[in-house]
Prior knowledge:
Layout: H1 3-30, E1 40-50, E2 56-66, E3 75-80, E4 82-84, E5 90-92, E6 94-102, E7 105-106, E8 109-114, E9 117-122, E10 132-143, E11 147-148, E12 153-158, E13 163-164, E14 171-176, E15 183-192, E16 200-204, E17 209-214, E18 222-230, H2 239-242, H3 244-250, H4 252-276, H5 296-304, H6 309-321, E19 325-330, E20 333-338, H7 348-356, E21 362-365, H8 371-388, E22 393-394, H9 397-418, H10 423-444, H11 452-477, H12 481-488, H13 492-512, E23 514-515, H14 517-534, H15 538-542, H16 551-563, H17 567-580, E24 584-586, E25 592-594, H18 595-598, E26 604-605, H19 617-633, E27 656-657, E28 660-663
Parallel strand pairs: 1-14, 12-27, 13-28, 19-26
Antiparallel strand pairs: 1-2, 2-10, 3-9, 3-28, 4-5, 6-7, 6-10, 8-9, 11-12, 12-18, 14-17, 15-18, 16-17, 19-20, 20-21, 22-23, 24-25
Amino acid sequence: MNNGLLRLVRMSLRSxxxxxxxxxxxGVLTNPSTGHxxxxxxxxxxxxxxxxxxxxxxxxxxRVYAEGNQIKRGIFRDxxxxxxxxSGLKRHVGFDVTSVRRDGAYEPYTTKNLSNGTRIxxxxxxxxxxxxxxxxxxxxxxxxxxRSFEDFDELYWNVTGNDWAFPIDNASVRVNFPNGAGVEQxxxxxxxxxEQGRQFVVDRSEGSVFEAxxxxxxxxxxxxxxxxxxxxxxxxxxxxxxxxxxxLAGNLDAVVLWIGIVVLVLYCAATWHWFGRDPDEGAIVxxxxxxxxxxxxxxxxxxxxxxxxxxxxAALVSLAVKGHGEISESTDGxxxxxxxxxxxxxxxxxxxxxxxxxxxxxxxxxxxYDSRIETAMQxxxxxxxxxxxxxxxxxxxxxFMIAIALGIAIAIVSFIVAAEPWWPPxxxxxxxxxxxxxxxxxxxxxxxxxxxxLSVFRAAGLKLGILVLKAVFVLIFAMGSSIMTxxxxxxLLYAAGAVGLVGTLLVYEFLIEAPTDKGxxxxxxxxxxxxxxxxxxxxxxxxxxxxxxxPERFERLLPYAIALNVETAWADKFDAAVQxxxxxxxxxxxxxxxxxxxxxxRWYRRSGGHQGYSRNMATSIASTLPSRIDASSTxxxxxxxxxxxxxxxxxxxxxxxxxxxxxW
Length: 664
């Protein structure tokens, strides 16, 4: 190739490259989206007019850049009308749109009610915007926004809102107060909700005008908030903004709930008076023996209405006293070891513990969960209820079921009055929980049978019911952020009502059960027996000629004393008898022991190998063994590690106003 041709090729390539560069540059200059790739709010300016009647006229001028990504037809603006105050009470504010403009011309808009406010859709559904800048002007009137303090009135206002889908390049606000008002104090906050950022400047704070602006770009989720205190008495607060009726109207769901609780309490009181009052037991006469056929655990169930870990402790001591086992106490808990050579027959409830451990085997009641102990505990409680509730108590299930239905109805009505969008799924979830609870209740209180199969069935049913309840609650919390928000933002008046509703039903379930005539006679006998075990006036007791206190008598009745919560008095009574007869000597461990009783009380031993009675034996067993049984029979649950606007009390996102928006 000659030099001339080579030179021509080079010139052609240079011209083509220059033309390409020119075309690219021309495209950059003529394409409006180049250099503006991010949809954003270029300027957010708000003018707030505070009126003498305490209302606000607010004009928001929002200049956005749209490129058809999110902003296709226009923008939407969310304005909250429901706020939760520091006291937890809800406060509703007035909100009326006056006008909406785009680039100076009136623009069509529609509104939609949200769970906590109003959404304004600006633009036409069938009209799409070309790429470019647009200025939207929203004017609205809002009431119940100002706050009154002792020395000043205050405007605490979230100027931009913290929930915009776009960043805000520039944010500013101007507040015009009525004539005669003066700015007395102020604070400004920037940043995400809860933060107290200081990226702002105040341009004016004199006379009746206050002006401020953010000095840095506000990313998505950040906003500008002001708190301005002005001369008190310039504005007049309407009575309906500060009175009790206003508070009640703003928390109508809680008011309905509390009215319902009053109705429920009246119903519970009336039905308790008709069905649940305990018959008069008559005069209490000390008895020296328990009623025939009543085990220690049964005595606790009939007299104290309890079937718990103390009942199990009394049953284990009873088994040991009868020679079916021995109890060893050490620093890491208790051990029940099965032995042979029993001298007394166990009750049916006590037999459930014997079924759990073979002869020569043992159960350790320490701090570790043992499924065998859990099963034995459940079977033991079911057996007690099977044998001693029917005939001795009336469950009065129908009045209680009506109370449950009334409570559910009250809760549902309060949800409907709240008119929140999350109440339908909450009611559905509550209905599921109520249905499961009713099934579990009926299984628990089903017809009693002496057969073991029904006890096993009820135990399995109750455990399954608890597991399903846990699953339902997990489902509730997984339903979405709106439901989670409803739990977090619930007001204190409503929360107290919810606790009162549940508490009323729990107390009523306990009170509505009443003893039958047979049960009343048994309770009177057991109360007299308890009186004897705990009677401290020995001279008075001697006049009743009780049986002589012997080691055999002490240990035979000790399980009853534990079950009836009088083990200390019973031990003191035995100690007094022993000291009176001079049987006590000092042992090597510093405690006083009785030589003749050391061999007798072989069923109990403490750390160091010591056997027999000590003064602290009864109280030690009664106070410690139940908690050890509880720890060993309860499966551990999984855990996870997870004012005004002044004086540091304010923050970005606080106060009135707020909300956010996006494109559509």
